[in-house]
Task: structure prediction
Amino acid sequence: MIRKLLIGMMLCLLSLQLVSAGSYMVSVSQPGSNEGTVMQGIAFTVTVNGLSESGTAKINLPSGFSVEESEEKSFSSGTTSVSWTTVKANEKLNMQQISVTVTTQSGSESSDSDYFDVVSPPSLSLSVTPISTIMSSGSETVQITVQNWGETDAENCVATISSLSGVTVTGSSSINLGDISGGEGGSGETKAASWKITLSEGASGTLTVQVVSSNADSVSEEISVDIPGGDEDNNDDGGGSSPGGISILPKKEVLKNATKKLELIPGVGLRNNLRLQAAIEKVLAKGKMSEQAKQNMLRLSASITSDLEATREFKAEQNRSRLSMKIKYSGNETAKNFIIYDSIPKAFANSTDLITVTALGATIEIVENDPEYLFIYSELSEGNEVIITYEVFGEKEVELINDTFVEFYAESLGDSIIEGDEGLEISERICDEGAKRCLGEILQECGDNKWIAIQTCEYGCNSTSLICNSSKQGESNYGVYLLILLMVGLGVLVYLKKDKIRDIVNHMKTKRISNRD
Result:
């Protein structure tokens, strides 16, 4: 009897759920949107399916939505669906539903769509390096950074660089970037790409870099090319130059566009900058550097700096500022673990949290939030170039380009290596002394910079608590569940047999009284 009652209650609840959901199906669709979302300000379609006899269908929109067609539509017998294709959400919203009320001779019934969120559409931003006029022939790397500032994925993104007489692009001029994920509050995915180009003397015009997407507006940037035909004396273009080697180009972007060739000096910060030393030790994954190791790295800095050429570029436009640095290496010996220590002025940003950094192929470490960065490239050979780009909101002042600071180091240069006090290469830090970890069913502890097995766990090693499990996983829970089930069963049994138990108790009381008598 109890079993039948429980089954009946379940069927009743299920039928109530089906009735509340409605017998018609309401769906929301929008091309290019992420699953479970629609894009703010862009029309989407609401469809009610499951119609049969003739009647009317009325869409019921929550606050913040609009439709540019009649809210109520008539349909004839045999029509299975009705759609509204001009529905828009005018603000960002969470957990929204749209209902449709269908009225026929059989009655009136409302059905709801699944819940969905209203998010911002994809919005691409494009940064291009170099950010000013190219004025010398030879090879050049054009690097781009594309970020999605919307909350919807930008689909099928393709980057293209235009053709120009006197400029040759190595490989394809189009690069498929694929989808670029969105993110809340400008935290969407960033993708980078680059082209290698060769420029001839006399080349002049504009290179255009464009990124297109199947569901987002295209973005583009231009790079001016102005290479004299064999005339090396081309510095006087009427624009003048400012102190410190800054060339302001072009005139219409005075104080918003600058280039500066850096005067490089060997690194000295490693002598007394403990934060820099700690950052280098971290990115190299080595033990603590000895004094001899630091002196060797300082000597390598002097050697490698003489073979480097570095240029800073600054550009401010459309409420954004970009600061980039291009470095070219001309040394004959390969630099292993090439390190760049770069200090950015606070006039550009007060903290690294406000800066978007792009450095293809580099490991990036924050030395200090002030902001100071460390970049490490596994190898730098003759003719190699690296480009680092920083981007922030707001149009900053061009003069900050004079306040940057950079140093260069390397772990090895040719046959020169960083050595410890004993003349040996610094050993790699495998683990921290006393640290523990699980390796399968084995619990290990770090000792003398190596992992040592300290216990084989019969019931497995817990990677969270870093101890052996006291029983098989789920065994203790199984016992608890069994005990609960037993208690519930006992309670049900008592409930079902309560009358018989009452009779037994009364019988025992009667017998006890008769025995007394």
About this structure: Confidence is low (pLDDT under 50) at residues 3-21, 231-254, 416-428. The CA atoms of residues 254 and 331 lie 36 Å apart.
